[in-house]
Amino acid sequence: MSTRLAGKTALVTGGSRGIGAAIAKAFAAEGSDVALSYGGSKAAAEAVAEEIRGMGRKAEAIHCDAAEVGATDKLVRGVVESFGKLDILVNNAGVYPLTTIAKCSDEQWERTMAINVRAPFEAFRAAYEVMEHGGSIITIGSVAAEAVMAPGIAVYSASKSGVQLLARGAARELGRKQVRSNVIQPGPIDTDMNPADGDKADFQKMMVPIGRYGTVEEISSLATFLASDESSYVNAAVINADGGMNS
Questions:
Q1: Order of strands, edge to edge, in the sheet holding 180-186?
Q2: Regarding the domain with residue range 9-241, which homologous superfamily does it belong to in the CATH classification?
Q3: Structure pTM?
Q4: Dihedral sign, CA of 201, 141, 219, 31?
């Protein structure tokens, strides 16, 4: 078994399902202890944590309402108190509002920006204080940060564009502490939120040159690389994992 992350501690926000759960389990398989946050299903989060413990790693599932001011800051600091340190941070928690600009309510706008932008901001700010030399921060963005590919995603695109630039700024500022910050921008990934056999799947596949959805494992393997010392000179990178969708 590979142990590229042996002795490390990771926090994966939104780690109860989909991409977040896959990343949490992939990190554990590589030797890392893992804290994962969840906003909805405690049972799903605990199931992921229990699977990680079955690999012989320490794991905790922690509730965090990312829309609440200060909650993510508290989460990051709490992980350090519980685990003793934080080596890897994955900003994965997010929401995907499907709404036009004209129909987007103030509340929907505020919630989207709170979860998709402010929460990662809090995580970056806390990470600057608590992460040590050699740390890695990975932000799960979206190819929608590069273009508004269809009606109804402008608000989401704005949030993902914002967090991409925030992560790149963090790469410059935290790089002085030898903490790296990189962004993975997935295209269509087969999850319960966007299933490969869903109503909108055919349209999305048409936009991908290789003609299929990606898998959560394809994203988690990339995250594992960015978390490991194999990518020690990769900083401020924005990597599209989208089958060429954004070509």
A1: 59-63, 33-38, 9-12, 88-91, 136-140, 180-186, 238-241
A2: NAD(P)-binding Rossmann-like Domain (3.40.50.720)
A3: 0.97
A4: negative
Cα separation, 117 vs 128, in Å, equals 17
The amino acid sitting at 73 is: D
Are the C-beta atoms of residues 36 and 15 closer than 8 Å to each other?
A: yes
pLDDT tens-place string over residues 23-81: 999 999 999 999 999 998 899 999 999 999 999 999 999 999 999 999 999 999 999 99
Pairing of strands 238-241, 33-38: unpaired
Active-site positions read 156
If one counts every other C-beta atom within 10 angstroms of the C-beta of residue 176, the result is 8
Residue 73 to residues 8, 118, 126, 218, 236: CA-CA distances in angstroms?
A: 20, 10, 6, 29, 22
First and final C-alpha spacing in the chain: 36
Question: 63 has which bridge partners?
Answer: 38
151-179 residue pLDDT tens: 999 999 999 999 999 999 999 999 999 99
How many beta carbons lie within 10 A of that of residue 235, not counting itself?
A: 20
